[in-house]
Specification:
Distance between the termini of chain A: 42 Å
Oligomer: heterodimer
Number of domains of chain A: 1
CATH class of the largest domain in chain B: Mainly Alpha
Strand content of chain A: under 5%
Number of strands of chain B: 0
CATH topology of the largest domain in chain B: Arc Repressor Mutant, subunit A
Number of helices of chain A: 3
Largest interface: A-B, 36 and 52 residues
CATH architecture of the largest domain in chain B: Orthogonal Bundle
Number of helices of chain B: 10
Number of domains of chain B: 2
Shape of chain A: globular
Amino acid sequence: MTLMMSCKEVSRLVSQGLDRRLGFGERVALRMHLAICEGCGNFERQLRILREAVRQLGEAEPPSRSGSQST
Amino acid sequence: MPPSDDFQARLEGQRDYLLRFATLQLRDPDRAEDCVQETLLAALTGEAGFGGRSDLRTWLTGILKHKIVDAIRRSSREPAMAIGPGDDALEFDALFDPRGHWADAPAAWVRPDTELERSQFLAALDICLQRLPAKTARAFMMREHLELETAEICKELGITATNCWVMLYRARMALRLCLEKGWFGEKESPRK
């Protein structure tokens, strides 16, 4: 594993990081890249928003009464 | 206590939604229909358990989720499917320049916060999910909605872990593109 990963490789690794525990080298290389690359940082946040949203699918209708139920 | 007619009617009102949702995850109309039927039955006999404490659709989707997981685990007749390991490389080549940098850098999304934004975002997500290839959508929903581990998804779909990661990567790339164009793109360039 080279330390300078391309955005393409990083995007793949960011995705895999949601599905398996990355190795130490992978995590270091990822963090280094994310520290300097805004696009990949945005990509990582997008996947996180996506994950949160998919877990909420089916809850699109808010409770009719507020206060009693927090989501 | 027998279920009230009113409750039964409200349940029926959710059938289409549940069916579409189940079909997305099972890709088999018959099995989806079965799951929805079981869900509505369970709901009907469990009206007391609902007790109006949360949104009806949320409650039903919660039950349906378990029925779908059960259905996935029950069926061992899933044919093994193979996907080429290099498929995604071709598919997403256009997104990166020859040196592997983003051709179009991902934008900073604003997390949908208000109830309105949230439900609009989920509606957009729903449309984007329907556009995914069937197998890809299934793998993605198993992972992200049903929250199954990769190992279990591999087993159910008869694919290797590597193929599974490729599929999930492919799904996420396609979804973020679809959402960026459809949902966030619109918001960035408001038209009057």
